[in-house]
Design brief:
mainly beta; 13-stranded antiparallel β-sheet; 12% helix; globular; Outer membrane protein beta-barrel domain-containing protein
């Protein structure tokens, strides 16, 4: 089946199911939404990402670094479950060799969610390794919400490893004005030697009627073992922006653009090579 038929069937199926099951109540505005889905509520998100990668074959032939664009789609569905909280699954579809290259382009299709694993856990096949997540709320008051989260990346693709990412999501609200999504996430990839990271996002959202927008910032510290009890450590900063619009009170149309990193740019690349884009839609069933 052609790729466009796969995506068309996915969009059509999710939209039809949602239209059939949608209740008369509207989803809360973006700024007021809870940290986790309420019990028996559901959501589905599809995002298309565009990013650059190094074309190794052309680089070797030309003796210089060549960058090419790739694309991929991120797909996620979640449901609120009594006692457990929110349970969901995510995967990705990469288009052609460009979409599967390292780093895979579907990372830009993860709209407003950058806390992911590296390629050793997600793989470079046409379909990314499935990622399962569980998220619960510990505290939720008017000003702040704090939760617990855990994610698992299952090594279905060849030459990939199991990934586990515990996290503490935090949402700070300034009533009727803004919302800050932050927290700390610690992805582990259990290779021959464990790779781990510390990821701290800071997404500040504002809202005007059904339009929401704001800057996307994040800091990530990576620890890579390189053998002989040696390791390479680096801290990277990403910066960008996101915007969305809620349609029919339950569909969020979303877009983002951000630099994967603005410091410690690899040799042969420049800041422009770190830029990527994403757009997509999220459907909520209240």
């Amino acid at each position: 089946m052609k790729r466009r038929h796969i995506l068309g069937a996915l969009f059509g199926s999710v939209f039809s199911l949602t239209m059939f099951t949608k209740s008369a109540h509207a989803v809360e505005p973006w700024l007021d939404r809870p940290l986790t889905l309420p019990s028996l509520h559901a959501s589905a998100d599809v995002g298309l990402g565009f990013g650059q990668h190094v074309d190794i074959a052309e680089s070797a032939a030309a003796r210089e670094t060549k960058h090419s664009w790739g694309s991929g789609a991120s797909m996620e569905a979640a449901v609120g479950v009594p006692i457990l909280g929110e349970v969901g699954v995510r995967t990705a579809l990469r288009f052609g060799d460009g979409g599967k290259s390292e780093p895979a382009a579907d990372r830009f299709g993860r709209l407003f969610d950058k806390q992911t694993f590296n390629g050793r856990a997600t793989g470079h096949d046409t379909f990314a390794n499935p990622e399962i997540f569980l998220r619960g709320t510990l505290v939720d008051v008017n000003i702040v919400a704090v939760g617990l989260e855990t994610r698992f990346s299952l090594p279905a693709a060849d030459d990939t490893k199991f990934g586990w990412a515990p996290g503490i999501p935090v949402r700070v609200r300034i009533p009727n004005l803004a919302r800050l999504d932050t927290g700390i996430y610690v992805p582990f990839v259990f290779d021959d030697k464990t790779i781990y990271s510390f990821d701290i996002p800071a997404h500040l959202w504002f809202q005007s009627d059904q339009l929401f927008f704001g800057p996307l910032v994040g800091f990530r510290f990576n620890h890579f073992p390189v053998g002989n009890d040696q390791s390479e450590n680096e801290g990277t900063l990403r910066i960008g922006g996101g915007v969305g619009y809620t349609v029919l009170s339950f569909i969020d149309l979303k877009a983002q653009a951000y630099f994967d990193r603005v410091n410690k740019i690899p040799e042969g690349s420049n800041l422009g090579n770190m830029l990527g884009f994403g757009l997509g839609a999220g459907i909520n069933v209240p």
